[in-house]
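User: My advisor, Dr. K., asked me to get a structural model of this assembly before our group meeting. I'm new to this, so sorry if the format is off. These are the inputs:
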Amino acid sequence: MIPGSFSYHRPASVADAVKLLSDLGEDARPLAGGHSLVPMMKLRLASPAHLVDLHGIAGLKGISRNGNNLVIGAMTTQHDLLASEEVAKSIPILREAALLIADPQVRYRGTIGGNVANGDPGNDMPALMMALGASYRLEGTNGARDVAAADFYQGAYFTALEPGEILTSVSVPVPAAGHGYAYEKLKRKVGDYATAAAAVVLTMAGGKVATCSIGLTNVHETPLLAADAAKAVIGTSLDAATLKKAAAAAEAIMAPAADARGPVEYRKHVGGIMVTRALQRAAANAK
Amino acid sequence: MNDMTPTREQRTAALEGMGCKRKRVEDIRFTQGKGNYVDDVKLPGMLHGDFVRSPHPHARVKKIDDSEALKVPGVLAVITAETLKTVNLAWMPTLAGDVQMVLADGKVLFQNQEVAFVVATDRYAADDGINKVVVEYEPLPPLVDPFKSMDADAPVLREDLAGKTSGAHGPRKHHNHIFEWTVGDKELTDAAFKKAEVTIKEMISYHRTHPSPLETCQCVCSFDKIKGELTIYGTFQAPHVIRTVVSLIAKLPEQKIHVIAPDIGGGFGNKVGAYPGYICAAVASIVTGKPVKWVEDRIENLTATSFARDYHMTTEIAATKDGKVTGLRVHVLADHGAFDACADPSKWPAGFFNIVTGSYDFPTAHLAVDGVYTNKAPGGVAYRCSFRVTEAAYCIERAMDILAQKLNMDPAELRLKNFIKPEQFPYHSALGWEYDSGDYHTAMRKMMETTGYAALRKEQAEKRAAFARGETREIMGLGVSFFTEIVGAGPSKNCDILGIAMFDSCEIRMHPTGAGIARMGTKSQGQGHETTWAQIIATEIGIPADNIMVEEGNTDTAPYGLGTYGSRSTPVAGAAIAMAARKIKAKAQMIAAYKLEVHEDDLEWDIDGFRVKGLPEKFMSMKDICWAAYNSVPPGMEPGLEAVSYYDPPNMTYPFGAYLCVMDIDVDTGVYKVRRFYALDDCGTRINPMIIEGQVHGGLTEAFAIAMGQEIRYDEAGNVVTGSFMDFFMPTAVETPHWETDFTVTPSPHHPIGAKGVGESPNVGGVPAFSNAVNDAFSFLGSTHIQMPHDYWRNWKAAKQLGAVA
Ligand SMILES: Cc1cc2nc3c(=O)[nH]c(=O)nc-3n(C[C@H](O)[C@H](O)[C@H](O)COP(=O)(O)OP(=O)(O)OC[C@H]3O[C@@H](n4cnc5c(N)ncnc54)[C@H](O)[C@@H]3O)c2cc1C
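Assistant: The format is fine. Below is the predicted structure of the whole assembly, which you can bring to the meeting.
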């Protein structure tokens, strides 16, 4: 549990960071909160020769409203999200999910940028970002581009980030007033990644589901958008048969790995239950 | 007497003696980050060593190439078995009479086995060096399942034992067999089963787990070539034994070895044994002439130093139709891993597992234990329990529940019917122990009344009916556990470690001003000895506990003792403390008699000094006696006030307790909630009720962890898959249930202060309570036994197999 040697860089601007990363090439990695990267370095599963610490870049932290979007700087910590009144008011599911990540110590350091850029299917924010229809701003030597969360994840630890690019902010459309939401996460203990988790954001009209999106965490090598499951509940009042259908549709796209959290069959089964419970709770808190 | 004269109550309270909830004095430094642990030891020029470990569970080591490693800046040496052979240390003896490779000698036998030791100027360089050592392996088929270890075609693990048909504990039946240990009357027991009206039989496994103290095993070894002296700072639960072992195996004179155990961050049995790291650091220091530090990381600790349990217990009870037990028959298959490094007293290859008759009056019993080798880490330590006692308690407590189910009897009622009765003590068990004292019925009834046991059973019946009607998906279980421990190893007639009797010791020196220092052969790892030992002395000799400094862990200054594990400190060292204090008091009485000009027999002890009988104003306080001991002792008496006691206990002590766990389980996810946990402990005389409560809380938390998920698991290929706290269940305050504690007091009749030891009871009694709760919850669906650990997915699997989930 001792990392290999590396050089440490602390650029003061996005441009400098991008330049460093592209000059240093494959051997360089951005460092945010370090709570995914450093454990991997300690296990020598990652041995970057250069760490480019993003903490020195002033503009990367903070939460602001831009029209109907909440724009969250990549270096905003999970703790910052929890402390934000704006987040609590307009995207309460973000707060709910952040509270289920790790423990206070990790949340003081871990950033939203690191969480979504990491590409670990166990991270909680990516599926939520997909369910919320968020997009990520990526900046590289060729300038900036926006990629939808739904298009960002390609495989475990493989994302749309090109070498030399950093993720500078996350832009989240604020859900409609009165929307219902729930993040249901089954975990073995505090600080554990999900055995399975489901994010639901929906709106109700006349007792029936009007819109719905569902994201799934840690039941596949990438986070998932459960589109069929979401479609199955539109226009229904979430009766038992519909919930069953939605859970089955969600389970159909899950392909979790067997691990100490349980065998594949169990993780899919509880994945379906998380979907059911999240749908029920979201419908109940919708106005 | 004026108003300022303290009352008797005030004088007693000022001592903070036995029975006082004295605050832990050691916490002043611990809570401020001022403890002094091995990793805080930094000596000038100190080097760091770390291991190259085997990725294979079973392989031949063809070649070790260290040439690239030696080029890494800072790397000074790479030690291999070949190096160790030059000093005859490639193998070391284990406490269980086996031998163990210090570094891989031709073969590796478990994943993460120590293969080479890289010594460097800092820890980072050492680890860079490790990555450059090239080891060529030829993989061999791994043996993972202990039930296949004695198959005819099972791979040969221990080539060094080829042709050896007997080991330290008698004949070996197979190349992977270590020992067979039998106790009890087989014929009588078989006859009881033949006649039995009812019998049960179940294979009850207690899975492999690990003590996992937060501070891992570590040491700093420093060899002084000029003086020929070796100083070892280490995480040692038994520092004196380590000194003797080092002297014997390194052939160094024992007076030239200084073993110092500074503050220790938890032990739980993990820090009793001797590990390759200690030997390698010592050899590295001798070779380099510099101090060498070795600090295990978490993965190394979990996967290489000392597992616990891994007992597979085929258990049978014979009984009458109305629930009177008539016989017990147990066969244990014990998975010891690659080397038998069990930390048991030398003549006890399965520890005190023959306490397996538990709290019940079994007229006859028979026990056989087969120890076997597999490609897993060695160990077999007593994880917060006396030797193999928690396995035994789990075995009998689970089996009694299974019998109750078969008889359609309430498990509490079945226990009450079979308890050893108060008038039967001292009680001779069918497997050879003499239980010192107990009042089981009172403890059990107190548990049942306090928890409202009958009402809980009624609620359970209602919930089961509601479940059957489809109104709830939750099932409810009541886990009853009534354990008897056997602690305080131990009497020299039963117990030794490598030939050294398992006494313990205390030396007290009183200073002129009425203060003193006391040193023991034990070593606290968090148990609070500095607090409680002083309390015993305070009550015995009337000096405030605050004026007694307690010191342990330095073999140059402390009297020889066997250390702290197996809840032995209070039963053995606690007795030595009382006996040493009584020697002080006896001399003090002579001094007081001389000063008060009366005969000794005319004095009586009064809280904190001696009083002349019938003349209450003629009093000499212990404080004043201390002063007098240094200037005006009776003619012919030596000055000073010191005493030493080495205590060889006449018997073990037998703490017991009645626990109840109330649990609710959601069958769809397997998620459980511990609604209530009640623990009544009887540890005899209670020295510090607050420390007892703390010990019970800690032990219950470990029991909860073990029963509900904590395991060291290997996959079929022999890879250990639970190597970090991500997967090895270590509950936090959030998962930990609320504990309700209670007590009865049945003093030990043979212990000077009647105390029995409590540190391990909650682990021993807790595990069956949790497991019985889960099993009780599922029993109405038709199951008799579900193996631990009861984590979420396994609960779901049980529900599924029983048809409760689609
Ligand atoms: C005990 C523990 C428990 C945890 N439990 C959970 C949990 O339950 N749920 C959960 O979601 N997470 C969990 N985490 C992970 C935690 O949330 C991490 O903080 C998070 O995954 C990564 O964020 P970071 O800021 O620490 O990133 P880092 O660890 O610094 O970086 C992670 C990866 O992302 C890259 N990266 C970081 N920032 C950027 C950027 N702006 N642009 C491009 N690449 C970037 C890095 O190069 C690295 O590859 C846990 C961590 C620990 C230690």
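One thing worth pointing out at the meeting: The pocket of flavin-adenine dinucleotide is lined by residues A 29-37, 39, 54, 74, 101-102, 106, 109-111, 113-115, 117-118, 123-125, 161, 166-167, 191, 193 (CB under 6 Å).

User: Perfect, thanks a lot.
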